[in-house]
Design goal:
Elements (H helix, E strand, L loop, with lengths): L3 E3 L2 H14 L1 E9 L7 E8 L4 E4 L8 H7 L5 E4 L3 H11 L6 E3 H6 L9 H9 L19 H12 L1 H15 L2 H20 L16 H21 L3 H4 L2 H10 L4 H5 L7 H4 L2 H12 L12 H28 L3 H4 L2 H13 L11 H16 L2 E5 L8 E5 L7
Parallel strand pairs: 1-4, 2-5, 5-6
Antiparallel strand pairs: 2-3, 3-4, 7-8
Helix pairs in contact: 2-3, 3-8, 5-7, 9-11, 9-14, 15-17, 15-18
């Protein structure tokens, strides 16, 4: 079956009127991310109960009418693994989606399968087969073939049906508020990460091995790279890879020959930025010690070791609990989430509570995690053949140690 593709601005605006009136829209995009600072939007796909259609952004002058709909509270927007779709909206109009359902996330609240691909989710929920993602397609090339357009639109064909079936199961399992909360946190987390891009240098590989002055140089190189990549509309890695950035911060080269002694710095894409890189390093070396990043003190290092060990213990408990609840462990908590919970509980920090200490996560697991850390409950193997072989037992004075 051939589907329509819109290439006219007025037709697009008429479509947006229909999308807004429908109140419920399945949405997906195709983009290319290899060659630009941010992914380049190449196609938008929309689905309602009445129509399925693609929109060619290369032929339009303004996509704002859709982004405003995506950011309003009235229109329910249904996506699958929609990280980029959310960010397209945020970068376009500075607003985030307000009424968004990510069926991939919701499925993780209804089963231990997370994250499921689009084709796997369609097969699991509505028992239909789809082609799967066109991972080899260059969506920026024109003209698009009828086959490509049909494949792209297929990504929204089943989303509304999936969402409706999931709503029934969520209500039955009393997890509707979980899904609302989780989808909202997904959106908020992505937007917050964009706002804090300037602090992402702290997650560079092996950054913790650097001394304070070296960290200051790495920070300045990172910020320069962000500014330059955005200005040139190039991927950050095309200017300077993460590992090379950290290496340069450690070695602090002061001449071109010293800089080029780093393996892989001879690449032409890097060489053209050598004067700027050397200038950034020179200026960063002059930063006063009072402005260097603060290292972890000994107590913090000790706490991190404890967090790692205790986090692993809590992970075992949560995995068992997720099996009982038919819930995805990776959606409930990452290893980092568990360490954050341990740190919060040990320090009794009254600031922002970690993810596991709020909302539906705390509702189903908070008390057992606190009791484990307090030594009020113990774990033992109950049934080695079971999906959830552990049992929690409250510790009493007569409980053998």
């Amino acid at each position: 079956m051939s589907h329509q593709i819109i290439t006219d601005q007025q037709e697009f605006e008429d479509l947006c009127d229909r999308l807004h009136a429908s109140g419920q829209v399945a949405f997906d995009t195709e983009f290319v991310s290899e060659f630009t600072f941010r992914p380049r939007l190449c196609l938008l796909q929309f689905g309602t109960s009445e129509e399925k259609v693609a929109v060619d952004p290369f032929q339009l002058t303004d996509l704002t009418p859709w982004w405003e709909i995506m950011a309003d509270e009235q229109t329910e927007v249904i996506i699958h693994g929609g990280r980029e779709e959310i960010l397209f909206c945020w970068h376009a109009i500075g607003k985030k989606p307000q009424n968004l359902i990510d069926v991939q996330i919701v499925q993780g609240l209804l089963s231990r399968g997370f994250p499921l691909s689009h084709s796997a989710l369609v097969q699991k929920v509505v028992r239909k087969k789809v082609h799967g993602k066109e991972t080899r397609t260059d969506w920026s090339k024109r003209p698009l073939t009828t086959k490509q357009i049909n494949y792209a639109i297929e990504d929204v064909v089943h989303l509304i049906d999936i969402a409706e079936k999931q709503k029934v199961r969520l209500k039955k399992a009393k997890r509707t508020t979980w899904a609302d909360e989780e989808c909202r946190q997904f959106v908020d987390g992505l937007v917050e990460t964009q706002k804090l891009r300037g602090e992402a240098w702290q997650r560079l590989p092996k950054i913790s091995r650097l001394h304070r002055k070296e960290m200051a140089i790495a920070r300045e190189l990172f910020l320069w790279r962000e500014r330059q990549a955005e200005e040139l509309d190039k991927p950050v890695r095309s200017l300077l890879r993460d590992d090379l950035l950290v290496d340069l911060a450690h070695r602090q080269p002061q001449s071109e020959s010293e800089l080029l002694s780093s393996r892989d710095m001879q690449r032409s894409g890097y060489r053209r930025h050598i004067p700027q890189i050397l200038e950034v390093i020179r200026e960063a070396r002059e930063i006063p010690e009072s402005e260097w990043p603060k290292p972890d003190d000994e107590q913090q290092s000790r706490l991190k070791n404890e967090e790692h060990v205790l986090g692993k213990l809590l992970a075992i408990a949560l995995a068992n609990q997720c099996a009982e609840l038919d819930l995805s462990p990776s959606l409930l908590a990452t290893a980092s989430d568990l360490r954050d919970f341990v740190r919060w509980y040990q320090t009794k920090d009254n600031g922002d509570r970690p993810k596991l200490a709020t909302g539906w996560r705390y509702e189903i697991s908070g008390q057992i995690l606190e009791d484990l850390l307090d030594g009020k409950v113990s774990l033992r193997v109950s049934d080695p053949e079971s999906d959830h072989p552990l049992i929690f037992e409250r510790v009493t004075d007569s409980t053998p140690v």
